[in-house]
Amino acid sequence: MTPALQLYSMRDFHDQIVLLAELPTLGITTVEGYGGVYQNPDDYRIAMDRHGVSMPSGHVALDDIEADFDATMKRVTTLGIRRVFAPFLAPEHRPDTAAGWTALADRLNTAARRFADRGITFGWHNHDFEFAPLDDGRVPMDILLTSAPDIVWEADLAWIVRAGRDPLAYVKKYGDRLSAVHVKDIAAQGTNLDQDGWADLGAGTVNWAALLQACKDASPDLIYALEHDKPADPLAFAAASAAAFDTLWGATHD
User: What CATH number does the domain containing 174 carry?
Assistant: First the structure.
């Protein structure tokens, strides 16, 4: 299993096109896109093809999808993306009631159906705010996955840990909805403060051996995307995390 690299992790690299030439030397030939690399998809696709890099999945904001679906599809098609994930809601746009989250689920489900008509899978990528209980005790992530039956889930398991929830329980509960998994690590408390407390994979505290086994048990067709929200050295993070993933994956059992 070769993991993808979420390119948001590499946003501070000096040139995103040049980066594509560097990645294969690190053993990385699959990437997950985000808005920062979508400005000129034709040129980016040419560079990907030149260096043997593919982009099977990508993050696209729900507002962009709803504002111009045809333009979104052109970008997705050009880059070869087959799985699209809406990645985030700014704080001012986050619902604070169950009704609000249900309305968001309806929007996501509508998008999922439009993508499905074009042969594309669509889902939601979580952070921590979807796991903060509402006043009625319900958890927004549960509302999204229950009220939007046509979406899939890209699970950011480290954010679930940061939310104080059990990621293993969520993988077991919603394993049939999983389409992709973000693989990143959390530094020991009080360390890596300049990196917002994140760590290279294998250098942190998350029990990835157990989580990868659970993900493998849940589905044989998942995309695994390495990520670090604020790496001190993007290339060093990518290299170390790719190597750590290879070791962890080899320790799991079919």
Answer: 3.20.20.150
Token code pair at residue 213: 């086994």
Expressed in percent and rounded to 5, the helix, strand and coil fractions of the chain are 50, 15, 35
Element spanning 83, H or E = strand 83-86
Q: Are strands 152-156 and 198-199 parallel, antiparallel or unpaired?
A: unpaired
- State which H helix or E strand residue 55 sits in: strand 54-59
Largest interatomic CA distance in the chain: 53
Q: How many domains does the chain have?
A: 1
Task: Confirm if 214 and 252 have CB atoms less than 8 A apart.
Answer: no
Please state, in angstroms and rounded to a whole number, the distance separating the CA atoms of residues 232 and 198.
10
Binned at pLDDT 50, 70 and 90, residue 186 comes out as: very high
pLDDT band at 254 (very low <50, low <70, confident <90, very high): low
Ramachandran angles phi, psi of 7, nearest 5°: -70, -15
Percentage, residues of the chain above pLDDT 70: 100
pLDDT digits (tens, 9 = 90+) for 88-99: 999 999 999 999
Q: How confident is the model at residue 1 (pLDDT cuts 50, 70, 90)?
A: confident
Question: Is the per-residue pLDDT at 193 higher than 70?
Answer: yes
- Could you tell me which of 163, 167, 158, 224 has the C-alpha nearest to residue 192? 158
Strand ranges (DSSP E) for 103-169?
121-125, 152-156
Which pLDDT score, from 0 to 100, does residue 251 have? 87
Where would I find the beta strands (DSSP E) of 138-248? 152-156, 178-183, 185-186, 198-199, 223-226
Structural domain including 213 reads: 4-250
Distance between CA atoms of residues 223 and 220, nearest Å = 9
